[in-house]
Amino acid sequence: MGFDATFFALVGLVLFLLLLIYLGVHKTLAKALDNRAASISKELDEAKRLREEAAQLLAEYQKKARDAEVEARGIVDQASREAAALAEEAKARMEDYVARRTKMAEDKITQAENIALQEVRSLSADVAIAAAEKILSAKLKGEAGAGLVEKAIGEVRSRLN
């Protein structure tokens, strides 16, 4: 019987495997693999949890961004309405101011016209009285004429004023 090197290598391998089984290397190896699988499973669970948290945060931030955009639009709209209201109010104030100033100017013009008209009437009365006095003085000479002239002058003055 001739045993060659291959046979001894096979026997050595079988003995080595039996030794490993006897020493419980397969249990240690299985336990290490189980621990590694559990560790990987935990890491996967943690990664899944972190991904879900990230998705929630993303959704939350997107909602906040939409809310902020809506609020910004509201603020801009409000500011536009306020600006339009202020412009309208300023326009109304300006129109009121112009109307009051125009009315004041018209009142001053009317007052000036009335004063001028009174001055013209007064001047006309004075001129008429002076003319009447000259005419009556020229026609009526003497004391009787002077009394009559004074009486006529008084009547003219009372009627013209």
From TrEMBL:
Membrane topology listed for this record: Single-pass membrane protein
Compartments it resides in: Cell inner membrane; Cell membrane
Superkingdom, natural source: Bacteria
Keyword annotations from UniProtKB, A to Z: ATP synthesis, Cell membrane, CF(0), Coiled coil, Hydrogen ion transport, Ion transport, Membrane, Transmembrane, Transmembrane helix, Transport
InterPro entries cross-referenced by the UniProt entry: ATP_synth_b/b'su_bac/chlpt, ATP_synthase_B_chain
Coiled-coil segments: 30-107
Keyword Transmembrane: yes
Purpose: Component of the F(0) channel, it forms part of the peripheral stalk, linking F(1) to F(0). The b'-subunit is a diverged and duplicated form of b found in plants and photosynthetic bacteria. F(1)F(0) ATP synthase produces ATP from ADP in the presence of a proton or sodium gradient. F-type ATPases consist of two structural domains, F(1) containing the extramembraneous catalytic core and F(0) containing the membrane proton channel, linked together by a central stalk and a peripheral stalk. During catalysis, ATP synthesis in the catalytic domain of F(1) is coupled via a rotary mechanism of the central stalk subunits to proton translocation.
Transmembrane segments: 6-25
Family classification: Belongs to the ATPase B chain family.
Name of the protein: ATP synthase subunit b
Subunit text: F-type ATPases have 2 components, F(1) - the catalytic core - and F(0) - the membrane proton channel. F(1) has five subunits: alpha(3), beta(3), gamma(1), delta(1), epsilon(1). F(0) has three main subunits: a(1), b(2) and c(10-14). The alpha and beta chains form an alternating ring which encloses part of the gamma chain. F(1) is attached to F(0) by a central stalk formed by the gamma and epsilon chains, while a peripheral stalk is formed by the delta and b chains.
Protein source organism: Kaistia geumhonensis
CDD domains the UniProt entry points to: ATP-synt_Fo_b (cd06503)
